[in-house]
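Q: Is it fine to ask for two folds in a single conversation?
A: Yes, each is treated on its own. Send the first.
Q: Here.
A: Result:
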Amino acid sequence: MITRRTLLASLAASLATPALCSPGTSPGLLDLAYSDRSARNTLDIYRPEGKGPFPVLLDIHGGGFLTGDKRDLRVPQQVLDRGIAIARINYRLSAQARWPAQQEDALSAAAFLLKHAGELGLSDRLAIGGRSAGAFLAVSAALSMVQAGWPPAAVIDFYGPMDFGSMDADMARLGLQVKRPPADSAESVESLLVGYAVGEKRREATAMGPVGRLAAMSDGVRLPPLMIRHGMRDTIVSGHQAEHLRNAWHRIDPHAPIDFELLAEEGHGTRAFGSQDVLGDMADFLARHLVPGISG
């Protein structure tokens, strides 16, 4: 469980970002070091054409906390076309460091982008999002930013786990053939991340994740706009995890805009998530909350 003390310590470390070394002026700024904790702590920035400063989406890759790279997926042109830059990070994987190291890295990257915004051609309007494990990191970091008083402008969850403690029960409700070890087992990617078998410390496993953290928050906290897309035929992370996040978000802040859709025929990161429809929706959502003067 992340306490207020560990949260403040993490944020303090995040704000002590390294100096920026002449990134140049090309639209793509590659392999910038945002922290000195690990050689993996680098990010790439892709900027739209034209004159900045540009708002930015911090987009975090998936891979079960065990693998993955910031260049695994094509950069969505739909977002760039709306005048929004995209920053993608690598972070410490679970074989290298236990949780909350991954959240610390996401916070460090956010702090780096805000601290060096002027040098990078960026504004101080920052959204954070991710896919699968990256969505867990993005939402977790967003909640820490809210608690620290520097909330992101928007948050995106694409098919992310949001409550480790309920993942197996949610999968059982779907009635689909599961293509992963049970989350409760010591061999699951979730257990490897936190360093204990989720099924043996279920309450603790729930408390450290976004749904559990929201449950512990006081009513009246203002939360950023949230976009969720998840496939109902996902055999890795049940779509019920998306419902848990939506409900917990709405319970804390009934006025926070939530753009929620379950894709009936889609699985975990299947083709629709790279389609014009879904990426266009994401670009529209980001434009509404990052670009001044856009309402739809």
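Q: Second one now.
A: Result:
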Amino acid sequence: MTTHFLPHPAPAPSSRGWATPRLVALTLCLLLITWPAGADTYSDAMRLKAQAEQEQANGRLDVALKKFIGAEQLFAQCKGAETEQSLCLYYMCISYFNQRDLNYMKKPMERLAQLAQRWPANKFIQYDYLSVLAAYESCVYEEKPSKELRKQFMAHFKQAVGWQTKMSVGEWKRRQINPMFNLMNIATLYDLRYDPPMVDSMQAYINKALEVDGLPWGDKDDHIEGRISAYDLQAWVLLYQKRYHEAEAKEQEVMDMIEGVEKERGNAVLTEKGEAYAFFVELYKAMGKPEKAMEYLELKNENDRKRFDIEKNTAIRNIEAQYESKRKDERIAALHQWNIGLTVVVVLLILLLAGITTTLIYRRRLREQKLYEEALAAELENSARHSSLRLLADQLGIRGIDIDEAHRLLAQATKPLTVVDQKYILCFLNGEDVRHIARRFNVEPASVYTVRYRIKKKFPNSTKLPL
């Protein structure tokens, strides 16, 4: 919700000489300079946040974090903008989390905790904070496992889901939340963080995920993806219980759903098919059917062979990306200096003129300059995006994809793509399955499904994504 703010009124002139033309002009100039800052704080914060998301998508994480910090500080000055402030802090925490910079993650997480304490009934703030806290604790657990820490992050994940249930179906849609995946994340943690897996708890959360499947929170594909995830984990539960024939039937349902959407989605289902084939390999090994296991292993290998395998020159791409980034920075800095000089000249002209007409002309000129600067900056950012994508692929060690085609695909996004989004898309373009990607980023497979869902929501339905 956009909040509008009125500027502070100018002080009334006294009877002791304030009405002279020069002082009137000076007063108008000061009003002009101070007015937009008070009136457009919220708009400036939103613009800064959008720029931060774009910088993050271009791989300029340091610049993105600075802008997120600036946007969060501006939101803190706006009444009724606590939810947007929370979202900025959430993005900052997640950025550090994805880089595994847990020490840097602490500061924004502490501010998010203060915000959550101040607004205990705000379901969005509570959801943001508990999600970040649970993710942080889960990461710490990987380094120093303990039952107490596991108990903490499981409790916080459940509390986050509890706040999710307080949101309406419409709010799930607006915030692009897939409630099935969030419930499946907990079910997956009961599988991966416990030895042996907590089968009963897994089943309980699978059931909860299937219950919300009937609610209208997403499109048909969203529900099918959530159902595939739930049925697949259900098959693993049956496998753990040694109910092999039921597990076989349940995973066959997964295969039927995958094949049902394969005609429309094409290569986008290769990951799911590979996971299903891998399950059948494990199932038939447990059933003592090595021939069937080998049959599905061959199917899995054939599925994997459909991936891209084209080498790129890493050194050249790195140099090109660094050159383009430096050139863009230099041009933006020069443009900024030019605008500063022009602003000074305009202010001096305003001081020589008096009256409302001159003031209005000056304000219009400032707006034109700002729009010009933003337009040129956007053009420069777009010119560097292609090289940035090459650099990102090289950093990931991905050499088997067509960068030009990847750039054209990313350009179809209707919402800003974060650097994490781009990494995942590159991995999917490279033909990597969910488990491979999960190991690459040191996350759970269910989290990969969640990220994939969020990425799809940023593209038009007509876009053919390799997800």
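Q: Anything structural to flag on that second result?
A: Two points. Confidence is low (pLDDT under 50) at residues 1-19, 31-38, 309-318. The domain at 1-9+31-163 is CATH 1.25.40.10 (Serine Threonine Protein Phosphatase 5, Tetratricopeptide repeat).
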